[in-house]
Amino acid sequence: MGMFAGRRVFKARSQENAVDVSEVRGIRSLHLGTAAIQSSMKVSAPFELELEYSRCMMGFLLFHPQPREILLIGLGGGSIAKWTHKYLPDVCTSAVEINPQVIAVARSHFYLPENDERLHVMEGDGAAYIAGREAIADVLMVDGYDSVAIAPALDNDHFYRHCYEALTPDGVMVANLWGNHKNFDASLQRIEKAFNGLVCCLPARSKGNVAVMAFKKSPGSPKWENLRMLARQLEDTYRIEFGEFVSALTRMNPHTDKRLII
Asked: Which of 35, 117, 150, 242 has the fewest CB atoms within 10 Å around its CB?
């Protein structure tokens, strides 16, 4: 088999890129030409968030529990788009994905629904799409990795400033970064610069992913007791480990015994 531990169930090649799908022990995964997993799905539970980093990206619900418009830059296997479409019925989810093969595979192998009045997946360059658009999303989720690193177009001062402008006044951006990548500190500093320092980091327990949440306006240094109370409600509703996320917020962010400092 070579690079895959499981069986390869799909393979597509073009001049620019490669898309592979593997499956092992009931877990189906998307790869972009390498063994690195971009997205995973439990075939028996296709609408749940299988990978921990994707659940961490939902940490924004601790700060913005009732968004109306979510914009995803980078689709992958569609895990987050599927989840928001199924579990957030009052939300309209849009996703911009640069690779048409990825969109096709998300639909053919990962149960991504067809577009409807609450889901709009489009082929396009995410950085170009948001440039010049203002107040188009309450939550902007950026997960634009190729096989080796975050795409440079999605990790620079101009891009993060465009993200800031694309958010509604209470909006939050969530960026998936690799905490152990050599560029992590530089990426985080670019986000802090664009968002006036209103940033907090939610590290995943494993794999080194960090969900970086950046706020258009300060969430007001919330008290831990209030975050824990909201986390319990969110856990009851969505069966995601929000209580653990609140604890993890103490690891990379300024805080006191009483509150998170943002």
From this structure: 117
Cα separation of 36 and 121, whole Å? Answer: 24
Q: Which of 227, 182, 202 is nearest to 55 (CA)?
A: 202
Q: Torsions phi, psi of 239, nearest 5? A: 55, 45
Considering only CA atoms, which of 46, 49, 36 is closest in space to residue 108? 46
Domain with CATH 3.40.50.150 in the chain: 52-215
- Give catalytic residues, as residue numbers: 143
* Residue 240 backbone phi and psi in degrees, to 5: -125, 145
Does the reported pTM lie above 0.90?
yes
∠ CA 136-178-162, rounded to 5°: 25
Burial class (CB in 10 A: 0-12, 13-18, 19+), 161: middle
* Distances 258 to 24, 236, 261 between C-alpha atoms, Å: 44, 24, 10
77-130 pLDDT, tens per residue? 999 999 999 999 999 999 999 999 999 999 999 999 999 999 999 999 999 999
